[in-house]
Amino acid sequence: MPILKRDFYDRPALTVARELLGCRLVRIQSGRRLAGLITETEAYQGEEDLGCHASAGKTPRTAVMYGPPGYAYIYFTYGMHWLLNAVTDSEGTPAAVLIRAIQPVEGEEEMTSNRPRNAGRRGWTDGPAKLTQALKIDGGLNYADLCSEKTPLWIESGETIEDELITRTPRVGLNSVPEPWRSIPWRFMADPEAFRG
DNA sequence: CGGCCGATTATCT
DNA sequence: GATAATCGGCCGG
After folding, report:
1. Stated pTM of the model
2. What band does A119 get if pLDDT is binned at 50, 70 and 90?
3. Residue A197 CA distance to nucleotide B4 C1' (Å)
């Protein structure tokens, strides 16, 4: 499958979050391909979005979101979890899409050994920190260019998901964020039915 | 199966 | 010094 180019990401986070559903997240680990189809995303758009880390302004952590689109924004939270985002929108506009869940399609053995405690369980890659563990993604890949096959991380086009198979809900974990940002439905979930076959 | 709670540290105030 | 875009283990039903 062709790798997604920079102009794919050079749009508002809301648009990219919708279109990333069904795309193939690829991680090269020791020369092998680990990949999963993206099943859940969230959009974070601009300093005015009080759920977005960039609402605190440009800091060393958020600087990557202010740069050009198509790069990885990977940050650490809750003292133990790495979360993967794709920077979107044009340079100077801080925006990103959080990848929240994938369905493994390549290299499942490697992913299993990356999270031995959860091997064989149901729903073992359906959370933003679970998938980074399965794909061995951490802060070392922050700023990785998702548009280059020279980096060990990129996204390819994949399956097209019909609107009827997509559920939108408020974003997760923003309980202390004011309205309307706390409740705005910027989380996109693809129905598992969309991935059969 | 569902809900509660402890873990653990980078980042910003 | 407080907080955090979460997870997983342990509990009870």
Report:
1. 0.96
2. low
3. 38
